[in-house]
Design a protein that fits this description.
This protein is an alpha/beta fold. The chain has 12 helices and 14 strands.
Length: about 375
């Protein structure tokens, strides 16, 4: 039997068609300029993103993983230095640490927000700890006020991984607010196509309030040079190309609307799915906004693989972010972590389920997803 609807997990095609006149014009102008590396669109995007985030220095680069690596290369870190980061996240965070011969120190996360737990950070600080990489996961801020306080007390660097939450706000206790990515010593982000601010290929950027760090990162992305053929530090080749920058300039103008559309879809999900005894809807923190890069449920007393299979049969995709803790990944086995070391992360890996969410969702799709999911769960044996 054919599904009643076929739903996309992320519908970039429809978003492109809605913005097609602007995107096509931007690409045409970039092609006409024929300056494909460090062209005018790259410079303009850097300035526009700086203004949006209210951060003085933005350094575009090739992708989000490069951004993390470049941030670490810019700091005075030595092989063997320890960097604290959450266990419940994508592998790129620990990947770059290992490549740079730094020691990742994984910590558990908050069971409701999925973000790094400040109490676990405090417990993990040792004599070799030099930095913290909080990840603003799934679309909302980690508890940055507390994290920055911990960093100040222990003379640690903070690198924000903002790949999933660019555009979200952190709200201070006094009600003032700032964008995620503007609080740490350095922020890294990704413009992978499915990210809140995405391009049509790979792209990334770094942000900082520190002019010295900005200057060093700008050199690192360009083979360690400020002046061509004069290399002051060991660097990499990591540049955002002009075509992607042209697309990002258009999408940045629409980012707040993208966020509103995602939040509207999430509100519908919340209203339909909230209160079910086997479903916990996403928890929004008191100190920030949620832009729903992912709409992630926590399920209990259900067979998740069966639910995913039945959703797929009904034309509804779903994803598990993330099925295996970093601590138990084969590539990270040398660290010596064992099952049971991170009870919250391990529980989440077994119980989370992300539903389709994007800027082009229609009410009939949302209704179909909710109706189908509830029926599957209620009929499960």
């Amino acid at each position: 039997m054919s599904p009643l609807l076929s739903v996309e997990m992320v519908d970039i095609r429809s978003q492109y068609h809605r913005l097609k006149p602007e995107i096509d014009k931007a690409l045409s102008e970039a092609l006409e300029s024929s300056v494909f590396i460090n062209g005018p669109d790259v410079k303009s995007f850097r300035e526009e993103l700086s203004a949006y985030l209210n951060v003085p220095f933005v350094i575009p680069c090739a992708n989000g993983t490069d951004a993390l690596q470049i941030a670490l290369m810019a700091l005075p870190l030595e092989p063997g230095d320890e960097v604290i980061t959450p266990n419940f996240t994508f592998i790129s965070t620990v990947e770059v640490l290992v490549l740079l011969k730094l020691k990742p120190v994984l910590v558990d996360v908050d069971p409701e927000t999925f973000n790094i737990n400040p109490d676990k950070i405090r417990a993990a600080i040792g004599p070799k700890t030099r930095a913290i990489i909080p990840v603003h996961l799934f679309g909302q801020a980690a508890p940055m006020n507390e994290i920055m306080q911990i960093a100040r007390e222990n003379n640690l660097f903070v690198i924000e991984d903002n790949a999933q939450s660019l555009g979200s706000w952190f709200v201070y206790p006094d009600g003032s607010r700032t964008r995620t990515g503007s609080m740490g010593h350095i922020c890294s982000t990704s413009f992978f196509p499915t990210k809140p601010l995405g391009c049509y290929g790979d792209g990334g950027a770094l942000m900082t309030n520190d002019p010295a760090l900005a200057e060093k990162m700008q050199m690192i992305v360009n083979h360690g040079a400020k002046v061509k053929y004069h290399h002051e530090v060991i660097g990499v080749n990591s540049r955002l190309d002009s075509l992607q920058a042209a697309i990002l300039r258009v999408n940045l103008r629409h980012l707040d609307d993208f966020i509103t559309r995602r939040q509207s879809a999430a509100e519908y999900y919340n209203a339909r799915l909230g209160g079910h005894p086997k479903i916990r809807i996403p928890v929004q923190t008191r100190f920030g906004t949620h832009i729903y890069h992912q709409y992630t449920l926590t399920l209990s007393a259900v067979n998740r693989p069966v639910i995913q299979l039945k959703l797929r049969e009904a034309g509804i995709p779903s994803m598990v972010y993330y099925p295996v803790p970093l601590s138990l990944q084969k590539a990270f086995s040398f660290a010596g972590y064992l099952p049971g070391d991170f009870p919250v992360t391990e529980s989440l890996c077994e119980s989370v389920l992300s539903l389709p969410i994007h800027t082009e969702m229609k009410k009939e799709e949302l209704d179909y997803i909710c109706t189908t999911l509830l029926k599957i769960i209620d009929n499960e044996r």
